[in-house]
Amino acid sequence: MQPVDQDVRDNIIIQNGNIVIAASAGTGKTHTTIDKIVYEVHQGYDFHTFAAITFTKKAAKEIKDRLLGVKHDGFIGTNDNFVLKEVIGQFMYDVYGREFKKELKPDYSTSNQVGDFDSGITKAKDMGLICKYGNNKKNFSFQLALEILKQSTAAKLYLQAKYYRIYIDEYQDSDQDMHEFFMYIQSVLDIPLFIVGDLKQSIYGWRGGYAKGFLSILGNSKFNSYCLKHNFRSTRSVQNYSNMFMDDVRKEVKVETDSQGVCCFAYKRQEYALDKIKKWVDMNQECGFLIRGNEEGKRWAAALQAESFDFTFIPGSPLDYGDLESEHIWVARQLACYLIKEAYSELDFYEEIPNSEGYNFSILRKNLNKVADSIDDINNFEKYCCELYAMLGYECNKKMQDEISILYGVCCDEQYIPTYNSEKYKQVITTIHAAKGLQYKQVIALAENYNLRDEEDLNLHYVAVSRPEERLLVLCDFSKPNGKLYCSELKSNVNKVNGLGNSITLKNIVECINSEEFRA
User: Fold this and answer.
1) What is the pLDDT of residue 108?
2) Largest CB tally within 10 Å, which of 75, 104, 350, 358?
3) d(Cα 482, Cα 491) in Å, to the nearest integer?
4) Do 171 and 223 contact (CB within 8 A), yes or no?
5) In which region does residue 181 sit, left (phi positive, over 0), alpha (psi from -120 to 50) or beta (all else)?
6) Closest by alpha carbon to 471, among 295, 291, 268, 233?
């Protein structure tokens, strides 16, 4: 069966010029992006190529994997890597002098933060490091890249000669400096952009996410604007529930029968909620219990396990914390995978090495085996890790030693085994931020985590309740303010749906159940 918006998807593929796509959860935005890339690669653009820019290495790897077998020489990587490799590293000396004609390395750790632009330039000159601001709502790398583009004719000509289009994913999470950089590329360099985002999934305002940038592009007459509506992931009941709360997709609520698989359960004592979970969850199907923070996740995991209910908490790894960012942190992260993840081999590590063809696989394997064999001796562990770093071209320093120490702690702590083997567990408890981009047959969410009158909480709620494929359970703790507010907002949003010309009741959207104590 073709999606209801197949004509929109077909038009996107052949559309020239700037393109912006509003893509709700589950609408196949990555698939559409790949189709567009493949189509344009086959069109042939002389010596031009494309850039596909993502927020995470995981997303970049997904694009690379989906383009296997397609001959191209495009750039596929993170936004930070793009500006470092294509602008700052190549042309900083053209603007700031020949003392900057050297290798510049990223270091986004807390210890090397800078307070202003000039301090960042000095740090690059004296230490060869591109750092970040202490204020996480400002972005030094993108400010610097934009300044270089404005002042360097060579940088402008280079990008214009190389790229026929730049693809940018998850644009709603771009900060203001990223937005200004990309708009300069579009308006001044006249390089067409392909932008995909979803305002409803803007959940990184706390770290500088600038959703207004994406909103401004949706209304920009220089962009051909499209909206993907067909949801390939979720049942109609789940779609109705997640869409009901959001202004831009509320009109998509289409109810034919009473809700199936979506339940809102109100309670005042946790034992009632635990009993409901035990009755509701199908243990033969995967289930994601999505929570706001790690401590909350640990508490629910302990409570469920005390009831002999096998939910596994998936904590975040300390190696993924932002203050560890550096050019070599990837080594520690991949070592953690190698040492903890069951289905991860020396070959997997080898494939993660930048320009891996320049390294001898047999020597790498010996070095990795030394690290693995020394896990019971921290001194030897640090020694062999440093040897591996050196083999990969990184000189030993204090920062490297600190991350190796954290790596050792992670590898020796059993709580992180699920973190690196999450695919083994059917029923998991994890944070909403970690679940973004994932999907589960069943999802449990906590109403108390969301103030639905707060925009960022509303977006976070959308991310959570749009994860399930088939079934959704929302637990409403009436002893907490957000739990009470949630139930009143349910009724309010049904009224908003009816204000668009519908005639539905709450039971058409969700099965509402109260605990015995609440009814009393």
Assistant:
1) 78
2) 104
3) 15
4) no
5) alpha
6) 233
Amino acid at 110: T
Query: Residue 424's CB: how many other CB atoms inside 10 A?
Result: 13
Q: Nearest to residue 203, comparing CAs of 502, 400, 466?
A: 466
Mean pLDDT of the 423-442 span: 91
315: which DSSP letter? Answer: P
Q: How far, in Å, CA of 318 to CA of 332, rounded? A: 11
Number of helices (H), then strands (E), belonging to the chain: the values are 24, 15
Dihedral sign of CA atoms 287, 476, 519, 472 in order: negative
Look at residue 175 and give its three-state secondary structure.
strand
Token pair belonging to 204:
């990184």
Say how many C-beta atoms besides its own lie within 10 A of residue 512's C-beta. Answer: 18
Q: What is the mean pLDDT of residues 138-144?
A: 95
Select from 275, 263, 265 the least CA-distant residue to 309. Answer: 275
Higher pLDDT among residues 46 and 269, named by residue: 269
* Residue 282, CB-side half-sphere exposure with 13 Å CA sphere: 11
The count of other CB atoms within 10 Å of the CB of residue 44 is 8
The pLDDT value recorded for residue 258 is: 60
Burial of 501 per CB tally in 10 Å (0-12, 13-18, 19+)? exposed
**Quick one: pLDDT band at residue 260, thresholds 50, 70, 90?**
confident
In whole angstroms, give the CA distance from residue 481 to residue 117.
Answer: 43
SS3 percent helix, strand, coil of the chain, rounded to 5, is: 55, 15, 30
Tokens of residue 273, six digits: 């909620």
Q: How confident is the model at residue 384 (pLDDT cuts 50, 70, 90)?
A: very high
Three-state secondary-structure class, residue 201: helix
Distance CA 229, CA 64 (A): 25
Radius of gyration of the CA atoms of the chain, in A: 25
Q: What is the spatial distance between Cα 274 and Cα 465, in angstroms, rounded to a whole number?
A: 19
Quote the DSSP letter at residue 86. I
